[in-house]
Amino acid sequence: MARMIVVDRDGKQHEIEAKTGLKMMEILRELDYGVAAICGGLCSCATCHVYVDPQWVERLPKPQSDEAELLKELGDYRPATSRLSCQVDFTEALSGIRVEIAPDS
After folding, report:
1. For 7-47, what is each residue's pLDDT tens digit?
2. Where residue 64 sits, what CATH number does that domain have?
3. Which of 12, 30, 49, 88 is 20 to 30 Å from the Cα of 40, by its Cα?
4. How many domains does the structure of the chain reveal?
5. Residue 22 CA: distances (Å) to CA of 19, 25, 28, 75, 94
6. What is the span of the domain harbouring residue 85?
7. pTM exceeding 0.85
């Protein structure tokens, strides 16, 4: 199984096993790290906002326009590393990715 490194809102790092073929949001919302994913992956609420480790950003597809627009509305937006985890497919190629759960907006 692939793995993901998740830094929760308290700054604690967790290495988890993660199933490929799911959206990153689906993996994170099952954990108790604060990803609410209220809209269920429709790219409309930003409650699955994460910061992707800079070393991994280039390995992800670029955000679509709706995701990019929603992210820019957030007070805790980081242009280089903010992503909505509902828009990122977790693949074997992303095994080892490190993400930080963004503050609750």
Report:
1. 999 999 999 999 999 999 999 988 877 788 888 888 888 99
2. 3.10.20.30
3. 12
4. 1
5. 7, 8, 10, 28, 12
6. 2-101
7. yes
